[in-house]
Amino acid sequence: MVLVGSLRKELADSLSTCKVLVVGAGGIGCELLKNLVLTGFKNIEVIDLDTIDVSNLNRQFLFQKKHVGKSKAQVAKESALTFCPTANITAYHDSIMNPDYNVEFFRQFMLVMNALDNRAARNHVNRMCLAADIPLIESGTAGYLGQVTVIKKGLTECYECQPKPTQKTFPGCTIRNTPSEPIHCIVWAKYLFNQLFGEEDADQEVSPDTADPEAAWNPEDTAARATASEKDGDIKRVSTKEWARSTGYDPVKLFNKLFKDDIMYLLTMDKLWKKRKAPTPLDWHQLESAACPQEVAPVSGLKDQQVLSVWGLCQLFQRSVETLRSLLQAKGDGAELVWDKDDPPAMDFVTAAANLRMHIFSMNMKSRFDVKSMAGNIIPAIATTNAVIAGLIVLEGLKILSGEVESCRTIFLNKCPNLRKKLLIPCVLDPPSANCFVCASKPEVTVKVNVDKTTVLCLQDRILKERFGMVAPDVQIEDGKGTILISSEEGETEANNSKFLSDFGIRNGSQLQADDFLQDYTLLINVLHTEDLERDVEFEVVGEAPDKAPPPQSNQEEANNITNGNKDSAQPSTSAKAPTDDDIMIVDSDEENGEASSSAVATSGTKRKHSEADGVETVKRPRVEQSDAAADNDDDDIIALD
After folding, report:
1. Cis ω on the peptide bond leading into residue 550 (within 30° of 0)?
2. Are strands 145-151 and 136-142 parallel, antiparallel or unpaired?
3. Of 152, 173, 70, which is closest to residue 396 (Cα–Cα)?
4. Cβ neighbours, 10 Å, residue 265
5. Strand order from edge to edge, sheet including 145-151
């Protein structure tokens, strides 16, 4: 056998001629690019829409301080070329969901490697690779946990074969009236930021919810309040932003409105406090006169990890409002600010507002560090984890390019060794799910909706785009006439948006055909009319949770967040049970290359091991101690808020 370095000559020649696509140039993407060029890959294209932030520099080692604000893809390319100047790297500062990157674009590659940080993009790349019939290596890290898997059309599960945990959400009345956990207050504070400084959203109202059924004294009153709620409340209010503008964004007036007047109004809804501890209003002037000098004295330790006093939070609230007001005024009339956990005044505002509300509702307050972790859905991004997963990605890529797809594995990196003292657990790739609504031969789903209350716009945005991951859907009713309900051509069916599904004759048993031509994807939707959906639930996909959810396990949702410090989640299988020796991959037996995508591939709650020797249990259980790792990029029991 002729070797070129540590590779067979045939494989080395293949690496120098094949063309690969790396989607994402962040923590995982940087490692992956470096490993690819050092392994011998010569033709690489990398795409990333993001720019470099100072917070990236602790682990995304291709970037330096001088690069802050520049394109990640472009700088990553320039830095990777210093390792191998003869490599041919093309960088795109763009979104992979741009229609320019169509199926033909994907077909030019022999292999696609994801290094993404959001589920929408991962779903999209999964579908594009299926449509182009190109192998995809999908992966992710969460603190010390990591995962790599291979997706090949017709041979393995696709990224969407197994349902992902849905984002944990809370009823509006809980956020507005009866918060019981710090996360409720943090969500409220982020809503408040948008109501005051950002894009207003009626679903993110922060004032007391007068239509809360629990606050009503009798069933008739409950129904009346609920009806009034649908008609903009039972009193006419000016918007939060309008009121704030009328005060000139006066911090003291804002404070007393939010933390005194609104709380006193909540206290009048005395039904809410029969079995709960009632909130305690705060008054700025009383707090100011009672403040002790010690309360504002400097405290030892890291600033972000200190829990401020109530008066300290008042001052932080005042400073952040004044700063945000100046930023808003500098942008001009009609301008809006965008929430960003890495924006100091925005983070200060949410820290102060959330903690003041926690104090009012008798909760233990949190440090700025904790609030940022929860508000940004953060799990620490560990550079070493990225490096290990990156190496595993390239190892799987080498198998694919050697024509050995059948030897590819899903590999889990554990935080602690299993019973065989192994950190890396390989599992056989599962075959495609016959019920997958993406990669099945004829994708089909059944959706429960109230056709009399669901609008066409809700079908387009909430169901097709948000839930089923379409980018530009076209929908026709299977009524024998081919009635077009939604068109991806701008303005063509815009008049339908505010109409209800029933206005088009859609009823129980109707079928809709949804097409996304960019993704080369068609989905048949069976409509199941129901009037029994829970409050604030717009639709339900039949066969998903709660109908077919796995049995509840301790902290399972926390264990299922795996995102390399960003906005998504997946399910690493991290059983403490050990596989046989055949299942263990010796990392140093091949070259350590490529970084895993920041997107983790969610697996089903059960993954089959390659072997069942020694009576080792073959069902892998999700790890439940993941919350211990949360610190800098996705937190323990935290929802994705962005």
Report:
1. no
2. antiparallel
3. 152
4. 13
5. 88-92, 43-47, 19-23, 111-114, 136-142, 145-151, 409-413, 424-428
Residue 532: other Cβ atoms inside 10 A: 8
The token pair that represents 176 in the structure block: 């507005």
Q: Which of 541, 562, 549 is nearest to 410 (CA)?
A: 562
Distance in Å from the first CA to the final CA of the chain: 52
564 contacts 26 by C-beta, under 8 angstroms = yes
DSSP-based three-state secondary structure for 24? coil
Burial 24-50 (b: 16+ CB within 10 A, else e): bbbbbbbbbbbbbbbbbbbbbbbbbbb
Torsion sign (Cα): 502, 508, 453, 470: negative
Residue with tokens 């009672």: 290
Percentages helix, strand, coil for the chain (3-state, rounded to 5) are: 40, 15, 50
Q: How far apart are CA 371 and CA 375, in angstroms?
A: 6
Q: Pick the catalytic residue: 173, 314, 408, 439?
A: 173
Candidates 608, 615, 441; CA nearest to 522 is: 441
CB 493 within 8 A of CB 486: yes
Question: Which CB contacts under 8 angstroms, 24+ apart, belong to 233-237?
Answer: 234/210, 235/210, 237/207
Angle between helices 27-39 and 72-81 (to 10 degrees): 30
Q: Facing residues of 409 across strands?
A: 428
What amino acid is encoded at 375 in this protein? Answer: A
Residue type, 104: E
d(CA 614, CA 438): 37
Q: Residue 18 catalytic?
A: no
Chunked into runs of 10 residues, the chain (642 residues) has average pLDDT values of 80 92 94 95 94 85 92 96 95 93 96 89 94 95 92 95 71 84 92 90 75 51 42 50 88 94 90 87 92 54 83 95 93 86 92 96 92 77 91 96 94 93 94 92 93 94 91 93 91 92 94 94 95 85 55 38 38 35 31 35 39 34 36 34 30
Question: CB of 432 within 8 A of CB of 158?
Answer: yes
Cα–Cα separations (whole angstroms), residue 167 to 320, 392, 570, 631: 29, 29, 11, 20
Burial class (CB in 10 A: 0-12, 13-18, 19+), 218: exposed
Nearest one of 15, 20, 14, 81 to 47, comparing CA atoms: 20
How far is the C-alpha of 142 from the C-alpha of 153, rounded, in Å? 27
Q: What interhelical angle do 344-360 and 310-331 show, nearest 10?
A: 140
Distance CA 9, CA 24 (A): 30
Cα→Cα distances 319→251, 325, 344, Å: 8, 10, 11
Helix (H, G, I), strand (E, B) or coil at 388: helix
Q: Residue 377 and residue 365: Cα distance in Å, rounded?
A: 18
